[in-house]
Amino acid sequence: MEAAQEEYAAARKHYELALHLYGQLRCGNGQAEAHYRLADLLTDMGEWPGAHDHAQAALGLGSSLDREIEIRNLLAASYHATGESKKALAELEKVLVSYESRGSVLGQVKTLGNMGGLLTKSGEYTEALDCLTSAFTLSNSAPDPDEQLLRVQGNLLLNLGNLYQDLRDLGKAYDYFLEVLSSARHFKNQSLEAIAVLNLAGVDYELGRLSDAHLHYARALELARVVQNRYGELSALDGLARVLLAWDRVGEAREALGEAEQIAVETEDVEGQLDVLLHLGEAYLRQGALPEAIGTFERALRLADEIGRPKAACDALRCLYQLHARLGQTGRAFERLEQLYGRERGLLNAEVDERIQGMTARFEVERAQHQAELHRLRMVAAEEARATAEAEVRSRTHSLELAQIEVVTRLAVAAEYRDDTTGDHTQRVGQLSAAIGTRLGLSPEEVELLRIAARLHDVGKIGIPDSILLKQGPLTPEEYRQMQRHTVIGARILAGGHSRLLQMAETIAQNHHEHWNGRGYPCGLSGEDIPLVARIVAVADVYDALTHRRAYKAAWPRAAALAELRAQSGQQFDPAVVREALRVLGTAPSLDAGGGGEEGPLIVRALA
Question: Which pLDDT belongs to residue 37?
Fold first, then answer.
């Protein structure tokens, strides 16, 4: 590591000397080249402000087209690191036009991949997928890909992993990151290896595999220091701190966060600094240092507003109102709570609804396009080469299924944001439903369809007004009737699908609030007249809703939620489904066959 540091320091010294000498000689070309070399070096070191200044200087002095492209790539990297995503995309769009005019496949693939990564981070998943898909198509079009193109494909895999991680498909994200790690080690690319290990650590943490996450974060930190990547070093330290906080090793976590914050300040990495401040505030809170925690969350709130991170701002406000309440500062607590609700409502209504509409429209367009293409291919099969064309039909059908899974997953997450700001409820319901379905003897194919289709059980909530969906406290009879309409709305959104996935999703959306005793809605079905997949999702949905906080209720203890499943066996739920659900959840399978009688108002809201 020390040898690498010395090499970077020596290279920087030589480039700075060359810049000085070219300046004395008034050699513009030489100065431009020295500025570019310094910008490139400082980018590798994660010193973004310096990299940006040298790249701008090189661009101002004029360069060849090849060098201009490289300089704009460096500018995009510096804008991205300092939270200016729109400026970064603008630079990359200029680079893409240049590569297209020159017919450079490698350049276009690299640029589209970078754009896909930026769009993913901005939450523009549809556009991100377009960029990454185009990049892969181009990279596969090369008849004899060289080593450089294969290396770039590793970066594409990394960006796809990031996209799936954002879409909460953590298993698929982990597989992509493992592929990136294998590619990085094959090509002995320690910089890419550091990023891959860092991302693996992030997925481990989200899945609760804290020991694996700790090992991966420690390895990522080691690699980042070897290659002098300060951005990676900051991220690894922040990740280690999160694991240490989960283990209640608060003192060690604060040490890591202090080091991370220092790097963020030195490199002017404002996004990294924001993440560190949020975790540092949590550390202060754990130690009972409430004034320090308030000061830290106030700093995080100001920074989040400056760089346009509304979700991070809501996290800071949520912690602030709880802290003020604990200190007995009622007026200040109420002020922060009012700000939080206002911002969350704006975030849900403006941003999420826009994405839902866009995703729904895209889904319909893709489905129509694929159906038209399938019809064309079937005509070819009948008239010319049936065997070849039918093979292409199968391939196109598989592509349609994959496209539907992509869009359905994103639509499920977006719909869930209406009343769950984390968007994790649908994923948990899908996982639990799949586990129950396995125990009930569904085939592996049906289980995988159920895992995805279950996530759309509440897609009809798109059509329910916020005044009802986010209401705190019991609903009026009229409001409850309107809430019940989400089953019918969801079924209509999904109606007409030709794939088994969409047909199953429609069935679940329509029937997951039917009761075993016939007292559910919308059709009052009972017993085995209710489709099995809907009976499974009904149990998984209620258990998850009970054990997690909602706007109108606190989270139930796990034992209380399991007791409620037993109580509703034979009343609201299929006894066989409850029995297997309890086994999946690790409890004894004994049930009270009598069931639970009338459901209380809290259960009614949970089921809605």
Answer: 86
> What pLDDT score was predicted for residue 55?
85
pLDDT for the residue 216: 96
Local confidence band at 597 (pLDDT 50, 70, 90 cut-offs): very low
Q: Which two tokens stand for residue 49?
A: 């402000």
- Minimal CA–CA distance to 105: which of 114, 93, 117, 96? 96
d(CA 52, CA 168): 33
Are 148 and 109 within 8 A, CB to CB? no
Kindly provide the b/e burial profile for residues 313-322, where b requires at least 16 CB atoms within 10 angstroms of the residue's own CB.
bbbbbbbbbb
How far apart, in whole angstroms, are the C-alpha atoms of residue 594 and residue 582? 17
Question: Has residue 165 been placed in a domain?
Answer: no
Same domain, 433 and 539: yes
CA distance 265 to 268: 5
Q: Write down the pLDDT at residue 365.
A: 47
* Amino acid letter, 402: L
Count how many domains the chain has: 2
For the purposes of burial, counting CB atoms within 10 Å of the CB of 289, is it exposed (0-12), middle (13-18) or buried (19 or more)?
middle
Q: How far apart are the first and last CA of the chain?
A: 57
Q: Indicate the angle between helix axes 147-166 and 125-141, nearest 10 degrees.
A: 160
